[in-house]
Design brief:
Layout lengths: L2 H6 L11 H6 L22 H11 L2 H8 L6 H11 L18 E3 L2 E3 L3 E3 L12 H12 L2 E4 L7 H7 L4 E5 L5 H14 L4 E4 L9 H5 L22 E2 L4 E2 L5 H10 L4 E6 L2 H9 L4 E4 L13 H12 L5 E4 L5 H9 L4 E4 L1 H33 L15
């Protein structure tokens, strides 16, 4: 199936959540033809906003609404970007930057850049090769990818094409037995870390997504949800039924998880401290890309407080709103060990498949190195609060 034919089928009614099991088993209605791809070459796309503009032209409205949308009035979604723009930088002149290097080490593994691909589900809406293309694009760049529980390709399929580390993001199911089986499965497949999402017992009020709902193309499902009889989140006008996840569940996961375990979705500094006591090996400051509870603060606002609570005991990673190399510098200056990007690489996937994912990462690396040079910071370790204008 070519890309145009594939995208043509990726529209209709339904959404992940209450419809996740239904979408995987029912036939998909026919849909209008997709827009033709734009004439622009990847090399013509100079920044991440350029990539998004092309992706929006390629993607069906339902797919773009799913990827781009946030919760309710999308205030947190906007704040995630806007708050980076409010932070000003202060350069240091005449510093030795002859040995410029943006590599770093996270959880004992060296990374060529402090950029990780965050977990994003349902990538089949964006490209026919879905997470396989993302894995190839990440590998070509040398980046770590976090595979979502809600992926359309299995961990085994992804590991077969991955050339760089893959982490796995876990939604803990109501059926704890299935959750344990999934953790053991991804470990056996070669996942090098487990990212447990702790901030979304159910989806937020995703009004934009629900106004133009999507349905999966024929034959596409959720291979990590095998055996699941009940969707992980149910919300209707008559029922709100959240999944229940407690700190004792994190301790339970830690008891049989053999790889490093990070907690994704920490916004409260007190939760970071509790997470470390429960056995977390890393903290990911995230508001779920503004997709759950609206009017939460931007992640970059929360980051310094979480970093203070963690006090250097484990890596702190931040996601949400990163669109420029200068954003990465600001996050690192405020104590992050690395950043994660989500929507930007999905737009790259839509714009050019694996090559589009690599292109997005190259843009950010180039901008990061430029910013480091102009600030007088030759290494990631040299980036600290002294580069921030107070």
């Amino acid at each position: 199936m070519n890309r145009k034919t594939f995208l043509t089928t990726a529209i209709g009614a339904g959404a992940l959540g209450a419809h996740v099991l239904k979408a995987a088993t029912e036939d998909t209605p026919s849909a209008p033809a997709a827009k033709p791809p734009p004439a622009a070459r990847l090399s013509d796309l100079l920044c991440l906003d350029d990539v998004e503009a092309v992706a929006r032209n390629v993607m069906l409205p339902s797919a773009y609404a799913y990827v781009a949308g946030g919760a309710a009035d999308e205030i947190t979604l906007r704040w995630n970007r806007e708050k980076y723009r409010e932070i000003r930088l202060l350069p240091q002149a005449l510093r030795d930057i002859s040995a410029l290097d943006c590599s770093t080490t996270i959880l004992g593994k060296k990374m060529s850049t402090p950029i990780i691909l965050a977990p994003t589900g349902v990538q089949a809406l964006t490209h026919p090769e879905a997470e396989l293309a993302t894995a190839r694009g990440a590998g070509a760049f040398g980046a770590t990818m976090v595979l979502s529980s809600g992926s359309n390709k299995s961990i085994e399929e992804v590991m077969a094409v991955a050339s760089h580390p893959v982490w796995f993001q876990l939604y803990v199911f109501r059926d704890r037995g299935l959750s344990r089986e999934l953790v053991e499965r991804v470990q056996a497949a070669g996942a090098q870390a487990l990212c447990v999402t702790v901030d979304s017992p159910l989806d937020g009020a995703r009004n934009r997504q629900m106004r133009t709902p999507y349905e999966l193309p024929p034959g596409v499902g959720f291979p990590h949800y095998a055996g699941l009889r009940d969707a992980y989140t149910i919300q209707t006008l008559d029922t709100v039924r959240p999944a229940n996840l407690l700190w004792r569940d994190i301790e339970w996961l830690r008891s049989f998880t053999k790889v490093p375990m990070l907690l994704k979705g920490v916004m409260n500094p007190a939760d970071a401290g509790t997470g470390l006591k429960a056995g977390a090996d890393g903290i990911i400051v995230s508001n779920h890309g503004g997709r759950c509870l609206d009017t939460l603060p931007a992640t970059i606002e929360v980051l310094p407080r979480v970093v203070e609570a963690v006090a250097g005991r484990v890596p702190v990673i931040v996601d949400g709103g990163i669109r420029r190399g200068t954003d990465i510098v600001k996050a690192l200056a405020l104590g992050a060990s690395a950043v994660q990007i989500g929507r930007p690489y999905v737009y790259g996937l839509a714009s050019g498949g694996a090559d589009g994912v690599t292109h997005v990462l190259k843009i950010l690396r180039q901008e990061l190195l430029m910013a480091m040079s102009l600030l007088g910071c030759p290494t990631i370790a040299s980036i600290d609060r002294t580069v921030l204008w107070k």
